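Entry 14. Ran structure prediction on the chain below.
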Amino acid sequence: MSKLNQPTSAITKLLIRDDITAENKNNQLLSLVYSELKSIAQYKMVYERSNHTLTPTALVHEAYLRLVNDPNLQWQSRRHFFAAAAESMRRILIESARRKLAAKHGANAVHSNKFDNIEGDDDSFNANILDLDRALSELETKDDRMSCVVKLRYFSGLSVDETALAMDISARSVNRLWAAARAWLIAHM
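Output, structure tokens:
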């Protein structure tokens, strides 16, 4: 059974409860979602440089703390929570790449135009990730749906069907948006 097709009642009910303390809710939530967050983090770390200072466990903990400590976030559902968690992990990895690149080379770092195969030394890897993030941010202002597909497919590791379910669109639409987004990103990186 896929991540998004599992029964959502326990997590969704907990997310929308207002009759328990925030600390109690956060503790219960962590026990319910930890293994799935760890899977997302492990997927994300596959694309990171081999000597990255963050581990999947550290990435999960940092993302989770950011999510539960943001008073402005109101969870609508399990899907909403996991999409926010994946986005939080992406931002943490981007921040890490920015810090590492800035510490070594400053603002004049060389950027590569690779989207399918991000590899090479640490500096080119960090530049590629930052270039992808810049292009993705630009894409988000032009087409939010294409941007969402990239985040769910590339950064969260969801399948076409899982992405379709998360976005409430057809798998065919996901494939069309994915192809268009990849072409747009490659042209703008």
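Confidence is low (pLDDT under 50) at residues 1-7, 106-121. Will compare against last week's run tomorrow.
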